[in-house]
Structure formats: C-alpha cells, structure tokens
Amino acid sequence: MENLSFLEEGLIVNLAKSKTNQYSAVEEKAILYSPDFKMCPIRTLQIWVQRLDRTSGPVFVSFRKGERLTERRLTDKHLNLIVQRYMGQKYSAHSLRVSFVMVAKLAGLMIRK
Fold first, then answer.
1. How crowded is residue 69: how many other Cβ atoms within 10 Å of its Cβ?
2. Contact 61/74 with Cβ under 8 angstroms?
C-alpha cells in the first residue's frame, strides 16, 4: 500500500523491483481514470483500500470465513484460482494482463504507453 499514490489525474504505482527491472531502480507506472465509472480500476482500488482500512501492508489479501479480511498477502497461486473460478479454467491472472495489452494494441495504442 505504501507504493500507491492517488492523484487527481490518476494513480502512480512505485515499483522497486519487477520482472523487467531486476536492478531495483525505482520505476513508476501511471494509471489514468476510466471515463466509465463502473469499469475504472482506480476507483475500484480506492474502494478496496478504504475497506482495508490501513495504510501499509499488501493490497491484495486473503479472506477468512464470513469475508473477514486478513493481513496475509494473496499469493499468485490463489489469485489464479480466483480468476479461474470466475473466468474459467483456461484463464490466469497473466492471461488477463496479456489480453489487456493485446486489446490495447488492436485499438491502435502504443504498447509502451
């Protein structure tokens, strides 16, 4: 949560390390608000952060019975299980990201942007 900066224009996510940034140089990724309120990832994340009711720790956490939130980080394995439960067995968290990039490219957007 410490790596999220909500701004008037959108969201900045600070990544200290990523798959493509193995030398731990600070990298910032910007996400803009969607004009469609119901489909806006930033507004959805803001609601989620309010529900977490804290300012540090992991953003994606697991639940206990009765939908009680924990402070335990959601693993990639569990995230894939959630995606498959709602989207089908042929999907994964990675395939959703790849699909997003492909749709953006087909719409004429530059992939780097």
1. 14
2. yes
Gyration radius from the chain CA atoms = 16
DSSP bridge partners of 49: none
Three-state DSSP string of the chain: CCCEEECCCEEEEEECCECCECCCCCEEEEEECCCCHHHCHHHHHHHHHHHHCCCCCCCCEEEEHHHEEEEEECCHHHHHHHHHHHHCCCCCHHHHHHHHHHHHHHCCCCCCC
pLDDT tens profile 92-111:
888 777 666 676 777 777 76
Cα 80 from Cα 36, distance rounded (Å): 26
Kindly report the pTM of this predicted structure.
0.69
Measured distance CA(24)–CA(100) in Å, rounded: 26
Strand partners, 47: none
